[in-house]
Amino acid sequence: MKSFCMRGVGMALAAALLSGCAAAVVGGAVGTGVLLSSADRRSGDTQQADQAIETAAREVVAQTLAGRGHVNVASYYRKALITGEVGSTQDRLQVEARVRAIPGVQGVVNELAVMPESSAFQRSNDAFITSKVRGRLVGTNGVPSGALKVLTERGTTYLMGRLTATELALATDAVRQTEGVQRVVRVVDLIVEPASGALAPPVQGATPPAPATEAANGVQTHPVTQPAIVHAPAPIQVQTLPPVK
Description:
Layout: H1 9-18, E1 25-26, E2 29-30, H2 44-65, E3 70-76, E4 79-86, H3 89-100, E5 107-110, E6 113-114, H4 120-138, E7 148-153, E8 156-163, H5 165-176, E9 183-190, H6 212-216, E10 220-221, E11 237-241
Parallel strand pairs: 4-5, 4-6, 8-9
Antiparallel strand pairs: 1-2, 3-4, 7-8, 9-11, 10-11
């Protein structure tokens, strides 16, 4: 039977343990993304809001697809990242519309592919790649690994969070050097680090810098327009980078 958000529980849990991080298990499936909650930069209210969005997303996807396709929805700072595979463009657009309509969602990045569902082996391998990425991030000086959500889909690793320009560059380099990563997508808000060292709020319209080396490797930035909301974070900055050869 086709399933929503299945990850290969045994491999994913083992991978999470190898990297020293916890993976939430919901309904027998490993939850979307891997995160060290003890160092989470989100407030308690924001964490609860993201959990509520992911729960609602599972319900609307199940209702929309009625068992078709393989879809994951991860929310971070009320921004929903949709990954997986569906059978038609119509399904892809319907899923996005339903997720976008969930109360509290402030932005959507639709990475759904119109193609046959990935195999159990592919999903287990993706979970293993995520564990290796997480381990590399934990071991990289200057990267707030606990403030990042990491997930991998068909060899593409996604980073979600709020980072300074320096943190973003360090994290990106670490991910691109991880074996098995075929593509890197950054769904982040850029935050400014004042001279005092305290983290300032996200800057409206700020775009993560693209060094010359990254530009040469085909960095792409796709701002995601969000509705006007009081105290809303900056627009999502989505950047796609190839792995280090």
